[in-house]
Design a protein that fits this description.
By secondary structure, the chain is an alpha/beta fold. The chain contains nine helices and 13 strands. The chain has a single domain, classed as Rossmann fold (3-Layer(aba) Sandwich), CATH 3.40.50. The strands form four sheets. The chain has a seven-stranded parallel β-sheet with strand order 3-2-1-4-5-6-11, sandwiched between helices. Strands 7-10 form a two-stranded parallel ribbon. Strand 1, helix 1 and strand 2 form a beta-alpha-beta unit. It is globular, with a radius of gyration of 19 Å. Bound molecules: nicotinamide-adenine-dinucleotide and uridine-5'-diphosphate. Nicotinamide-adenine-dinucleotide binds next to helix 1, helix 3 and strand 5.
Length: about 300
């Protein structure tokens, strides 16, 4: 198949491009390089089945494809808050453009949604039936509300125009190729630990997250895309939950670092707890994560260690 991956030069997108090329597909990787990099896809550039398109999804584009994975959107709070109006344009205009493309060429389209659509959740763990608790006017709203509108657009194009859609709600995912300056907790803590710098825990570190290794996410994402007759939304994440303070201690012990933990102010609207209920993913696509956190973190630490030693 000919498959379009928007955001294909980013962290998750570059792994996805690699997986799809490995399966024998033709891949069009589209990216505006806001947070992605050519380095992430350097190993694919010489492959005749791989094509790189520098483009911004907020602008329309004419392509002929069988499938679309719409991943384009900055995912780290510091990046999506850098130009919040642009972030929401990416999730609204960008998604309209990608849905218009899918409609025209009758391509199946998957939207990367997020656990952030649950906001600061009042039910725990989060099931797909929960409508969320999102601040509509806060600093995170450009991302959270943008992704909520993206889901609405997907459902409306499906109901109104019969577009073949898939919605996945991705929970915190980590792995090699996260950017050093990405600003999310996994890359921050590992880079700080490897440099023996202070580990910056925001708030008192009692807030929780559940971390999923990128290979596990890709397996779920592709299973969802390949399955006929389902739209989602479906949660994809690892249900093993940890507090951010425990997570900092684990990174220190895995890296053998001399870093100290320091407490910094908690960003506004930072969700207090997050864990996916993945019953639906288990039932509908037979998916659950397989990579233990120790294994995934060791691979990620190795990646950052290599990156830092080459700097
Ligand atoms: P990332 O920032 O590494 O990748 C995003 C990619 O999209 C980058 O390559 C960036 O340059 C590109 N991009 C951004 N805006 C664009 C635009 N307007 N036009 C074209 N390209 C654009 O982030 P990631 O972690 O790889 O996330 C990929 C997707 O998964 C995002 O949609 C994100 O919201 C979603 N997601 C990720 C996580 C996670 O934990 N990693 C969790 C929930 C949802
Ligand atoms: N966090 C932290 N120190 C950091 C970066 C993040 O304590 O250097 C916290 C952040 O406040 C949040 C959690 O780690 O509670 C996860 O943050 P991230 O930005 O990775 O993802 P999100 O908040 O979007 O889940």
């Amino acid at each position: 198949m000919r498959i379009l991956v928007t955001g294909g030069a980013g962290f998750i997108g570059s792994h996805l491009c690699e997986k799809l090329i490995g399966e024998g597909h033709e891949v069009l990787c589209l990216d505006n390089f806001f947070t992605g990099s050519k380095q992430n896809i350097a190993n694919l550039l010489s492959n005749p089945r791989f094509e790189l398109i520098r483009h911004d999804i907020t602008q329309p584009i004419l392509l002929e494809v069988d499938r679309i994975f719409n991943l384009a959107c900055p995912a780290s709070p510091i990046h999506y808050q850098y130009n919040p109006v642009k972030t929401i344009k990416t999730s609204v205009l960008g998604v309209i453009n990608m849905l218009g493309l899918a409609k025209r060429v009758r391509a199946r389209i998957l939207q990367a949604s997020t656990s952030e659509i649950y906001g600061d959740p009042e039910i725990h763990p989060q099931t797909e039936e929960y409508w969320g608790n999102v601040n509509p006017i806060g600093l995170r709203s450009c991302y959270d509300e943008g992704k909520r509108v993206a889901e609405t657009l997907m459902m409306d194009y499906h109901r109104q125009n019969g577009v073949d859609i898939r919605i996945i709600r991705i929970f915190n995912t980590y792995g090699p190729r996260m950017a050093i300056e990405d600003g999310r907790v996994v890359s921050n803590f590992i880079v700080q630990a490897l440099r023996n710098e202070d580990i910056t825990v925001y708030g008192d570190g009692s807030q929780t997250r559940s971390f999923c290794y990128v290979d596990d996410l890709l397996a779920g994402m592709c299973a969802m895309m390949d399955r006929d007759g389902i739209t989602g939304p479906i949660n994809l994440g690892n249900p093993v939950e940890t507090s951010i303070l425990e997570f900092a201690q684990r990174i220190i012990s895995l890296t053998g670092s001399r870093s100290r933990i320091v407490l910094k102010p908690l960003p506004a609207d930072d969700p207090k707890q997050r864990r996916p209920d993945i019953s639906k993913a288990r039932d509908l696509i037979g998916w659950e994560p397989a990579v233990p956190i120790e294994t995934g973190l060791k691979r990620t630490i190795e990646f950052f260690d290599g990156l830092l030693s080459r700097r």
